[in-house]
Amino acid sequence: MRAALGRALRTGGLAGAAILARARVRLGLAPRFSGVWDTREAALAALPAAEARGYDDPDIAEVSFEAMCNREVWDYPVLHWLSRWLPDAPRLLDAGGHMGTKRIALGALLPLEGVTWTVLDTPGIVTAARAAQAAGRIPADLSFVDAPERAPETDLLLASGLMQYVDRSLTEVIAALPAPPRHLLLNKVALRDGPQIVTHERLDAVRVPYRIRARADWQAELDRLGYDLVDTWRIPDLSHRIPTHPWLGMSQSWGFALTQRQK
């Protein structure tokens, strides 16, 4: 570490900061984001075996669970569109919904009479969620599924913070459902100018692959889906720079509301 510090001080600037960040990774003190790979598979292969499960791990379920149950400023566009759509689109699929954190955070402000709220997440997270539900820690009216193919028909797909972690494209996620939802609410989508990259995000004691998609590719995918974009919002607080590769610039976090195009 002393040698890395000396090189960083001599180098200075972004390169010096990257030297220090990489030294921290080698010492087991990784910053929140570290490393860059072209694919999720390569990012997973770079992790120790104990961390190679990604988000499919019951132990991750409790990391920041209480914090994720709080309402944040970036939840309010989601709250707005849920309030408008749920009365006529009551079958909601919360993809990447963890242990029902958005239902807990927003439920008191939503018209939930007649609404079925189903959470889709990895088998590890769903196992932990069902145990927490049996213990009375999360609402009893939530349902959980661990694969898109097991999801019920849905009117409204909510994906808040999903696209950074999911293996599939949005097109593939929708294609795996019983039928395309009428509405899509996509929040906290990590984008960048330039090619897609995958980094490691540190979650407490483990790291998971975190995908930052190419903005141009993402926009082209949305255009092909057969939905009309009715709203979009930027979330400046969730922009990130990868300390080990600071020259790649800041990511941006965006939200999107889309409704199925009329034929």
TrEMBL record:
Gene Ontology process terms (BP): methylation
GO MF assignments: methyltransferase activity
InterPro entries in the cross-refs: Put_MTase_LIC12133, SAM-dependent_MTases_sf
Entry keywords, A to Z: Methyltransferase, Transferase
Domain of life (superkingdom): Bacteria
Keyword Transferase: yes
SUPFAM superfamilies: S-adenosyl-L-methionine-dependent methyltransferases
Name the record gives this protein: Putative methyltransferase (TIGR04325 family)
